[in-house]
Design a protein that fits this description.
Blueprint lengths: L13 E2 L16 E4 L7 H10 L1 E6 L3 H6 L9 E4 L9 H7 L7 H11 L1 H16 L6 E5 L6 H12 L4 H9 L1 H4 L3 H8 L18 H15 L2 H9 L3 H11 L2
Helix pairs in contact: 3-4, 4-5, 4-10, 6-7, 10-11
Length: 250
């Protein structure tokens, strides 16, 4: 099965199926997609996604992004507005408290997101919708603008919850770098027709190992275990986690 789906009008669209978990299962194909902008999907791409089983689209972008670059609509999936930004809690302060020895700037942003109450609420919505995506031959797609930061955090939370090891999660995250020739390419995808750029769409740095590692360390520092984070921050208790694994792994 292809991991990278080169569909017309989509940016950084990838399959999350096929990854092994720590209990000997694998993530099912045709259940989870991660992506960047999908505002320019063509009829051919929509046909592919309909056959793929797409039913849920979770949009992590800000309200202004969603208005300016609205997702392509269709009758076979529903779009859920779920902005990660702006952060409204104290995630930035919590991140600062554990960074005296220094993480990358991007890593600290990621830590702020997973520790912030608003950021947590956004990913709670993702997990809630994942629980509703329980029918066979139905799938869910979550995305932001470039499919790197907000989507990358979502993917690492989902994969970790389903039992994928951190090395594999990191490799999936770093695949974003292969999706763009260079930063100039990324910038071009974010420019509007007048050459103006929405700076909130993406932190303009390449995906890096330290950023992803910093997320796990922040969660461990404040929540002790990842399962405790799922329970306390995202309202995914042991019963819901078991249900998620039954839906998404085999």
């Amino acid at each position: 099965m292809k991991r990278i789906l080169n569909l017309e009008g989509a940016i950084n669209l990838r399959e999350l199926g096929g990854y092994p978990t720590n209990n000997g299962t694998t993530i099912k194909y045709h259940k989870l997609l991660r992506s960047g902008d999908i505002s320019n999907l063509t009829g051919k791409s929509l046909s592919y996604l309909k056959n793929y089983g797409l039913r849920y689209v979770v949009d992590f972008r800000s309200n202004s992004e969603q208005q300016t670059w609205a997702d392509t609509t269709s009758d076979f999936y529903k779009i859920y507005s779920d902005p990660v930004y702006p952060l409204k809690g104290n995630g930035d302060k919590l991140a600062m408290m554990i960074n005296r020895n220094g993480y990358s700037y991007l890593g600290m942003i990621y830590q702020s997101v997973v520790l912030d109450k608003h950021g947590q609420q956004a990913y709670k919505i993702l997990f809630d919708l994942m629980l509703h995506n329980d029918q066979p031959k139905q799938s869910l797609l979550f995305h932001c603008a470039a499919g790197k930061d907000r989507t990358g955090i979502g993917a690492l939370l989902v994969l970790k919850a389903l039992g994928v090891d951190e090395e594999t999660i990191t490799k999936d995250y770093l695949l974003t770098n292969l999706m763009y020739d260079d930063i100039d390419t990324i910038e071009n995808t974010l420019n509007d027709e007048n050459g103006n750029q929405d700076i909130n769409k993406m932190n303009m740095t390449k995906a890096d190992l330290a950023s992803i590692t910093s997320v796990f360390r922040a969660i461990e520092h404040y929540y002790g275990t990842f399962d405790n984070y799922l329970d306390k921050a995202l309202d995914i208790d042991a019963a819901k986690l078991k249900q998620l694994k039954s839906i998404y792994t085999e």
